[in-house]
Amino acid sequence: MEKLFNNSDIPLAAKLIPSDLDEFAGQLHLVGPDSVIRKLIEQDRLISCVFYGPPGTGKSALARIIAKRTKSDFIRLNAVTATIDDIRKAVKRAYENRNVGVKTVLFVDEIHRFNKAQQDALLPPLEEGIITLIGATTKNPFFSLTPPLRSRVLLFEFKKLSEEDLKKVLELAEKKTGIKISSDGKKYLINMVDGDARRMLNIIDATVSLKAKDIITKDDLTRVIKEQWILYDRDEDYHYDVISAFIKSIRGSDPDAALYWLAVMLEGGEDPLFIARRLIILASEDIGLADSFALVLANSAYEAVDNIGMPEARIILAHATLYLSIQPKSNSSYLAIENALSYVKNNPLMDVPTYLRASHPDKKKYKYPHNYGGHFVRQKYMEKNISFYTPTEMGREKELKKIYDRLKEIKDGENNSGNVKK
Questions:
Q1: 3-class DSSP state for residue 137?
Q2: Is 237-326 a domain of CATH 1.20.272.10?
Q3: How confident is the model at residue 8 (pLDDT cuts 50, 70, 90)?
Q4: Which pLDDT does position 286 carry in this prediction?
Q5: Any idea what DSSP says for residue 352?
Q6: Choosing a second label site near 203 at 20 to 30 A (CA), which of 146, 149, 242, 407?
Q7: Nearest to residue 112, comparing CAs of 86, 138, 91?
Q8: Opening angle at CA 368, ends 363 and 369, nearest 5
């Protein structure tokens, strides 16, 4: 087996990059029969696009296939290290290619790493048709790309590779390299990599270098991997999916699900202060006036996590998570401010009543509530009588609702005596 890998430091994943669509695994919604990309390739047409999706799903491989099938010069840049000068050099080469009738595919890996200036530098050659841009990213392009660049490309989402897709990759690896993997080894490997073909091939690569036998077994793979790692990256979309599941579990009053997603984040190396910040937001947005202490506890949890640090901070986060999960829920505060913002955005601004202004002759007409019985006086604080807040009867907000309803009854009443008796 060793002879298959000697005299080369090229990773197995790089050696097995598919050269045509027949070897390409997965993404049938993009390259299957009657799919958009396959038809464009067959028609020898190029379009600028951005491929986005999980790592190891074939984004860069498909870009190479497109360039090959359309007989285009393939220029690759990695946005992590590329500069504007590198972009200019690529565009200059593209101009030279056009002068001799050659098309140019500029492939930018990790395109979400480009800043605004770098993304803007791609716009003129795109407009002139000098380059066909193919970007690849694990980020959502709706958040990571500037609107001008996004409007000039088509977006294609890549999916995690299925079990059958990964089997196809393994068969290709065995065919091209001569390595053999036991059936239980294949099953274990496929379960381990969560749809990431590159990760799978890298594990095989590492296992081969330590192997003396002709077949790779599950035990061989286990010795290399040691234990299944949490497939979690706080810089990628899964990070947002997990925190979303965490918050929605608390909102849905499911403490066990919330603890599970908390454990996934902690085991994956998530910043505990990021989790604590989200708990503070949830305490107001989803519990709110049903239990105002929830906000106090969440804020205290943040301070404690900041002071204590991991690993003990996990206990504090679990404490806050469980408390917030089992509290009655009310989003009345969230809805109230959303209603007020919507009204402000969609209606002419009201004038501040003269007696409420900081400096105005009428300010002496302002009625100071503490001078009246019950420390309350009927007084208009805006021109129109509009209600933005609708209290619920959840938890402690039920008592607040009684007070609010009484105040509203007084405010809306016909009695204009100006005060309320003690």
A1: strand
A2: yes
A3: low
A4: 95
A5: P
A6: 242
A7: 138
A8: 145
Domain formed by 352-412, architecture: Orthogonal Bundle (1.10)
pLDDT tens-digit readout, 269-284: 788 888 999 999 999 9
Residue 63, phi-psi category: left (phi > 0), alpha (psi -120 to 50), beta (remainder): alpha
Highest mean pLDDT among 4-18, 201-215, 225-239, 322-336: 322-336
The Cα–Cα gap between 209 and 201 comes to: 13
Residue 75 has pLDDT above 60, yes or no: yes
> What token pair was written down for 254?
């499911």
To the question of pTM greater than 0.70 for the whole model, the response is no
Backbone angles phi, psi at 133, to 5 degrees: -90, 130
Q: Which two three-digit tokens encode residue 37?
A: 């990309």
Q: How far apart are CA 10 and CA 8, in angstroms?
A: 5
Statement: residue 333 has pLDDT above 90: yes
Q: How far is Cα 128 from Cα 137, in angstroms, rounded to an integer?
A: 24
- Domain segments of the chain: what residues? 27-157, 163-225, 237-326, 352-412
Q: Which structure tokens are listed for 20?
A: 């045509």
Bridge partners of 105, per DSSP, are 74, 132
Token pair 């716009």 is found at: 123
How would you class 210 by CB atoms within 10 Å of its CB: exposed for 0-12, middle for 13-18, buried for 19 or more? exposed
Q: Is the dihedral of CA 111, 112, 118, 120 positive or negative?
A: positive
Rg over alpha carbons for the chain, rounded to the nearest Å, is 31
Can you identify the CATH homologous superfamily of domain 27-157?
P-loop containing nucleotide triphosphate hydrolases (3.40.50.300)
First to last CA, the chain: 94
Rounded to the nearest 5 degrees, what angle is found at the Cα of 114, between the Cα atoms of 113 and 119?
Answer: 150
Round to whole Å and give the CA distance between 111 and 79.
5
- Taking residues 294-321, report their average pLDDT: 93
DSSP H or E run through 139: none
Residues 291/392, Cβ–Cβ less than 8 Å = no
Reported as type and span, the H/E element at residue 99 is helix 84-99
Hey, what CATH topology would domain 163-225 get? Answer: Helicase, Ruva Protein; domain 3 (1.10.8)
Classify 43 as helix, strand or coil. Answer: coil
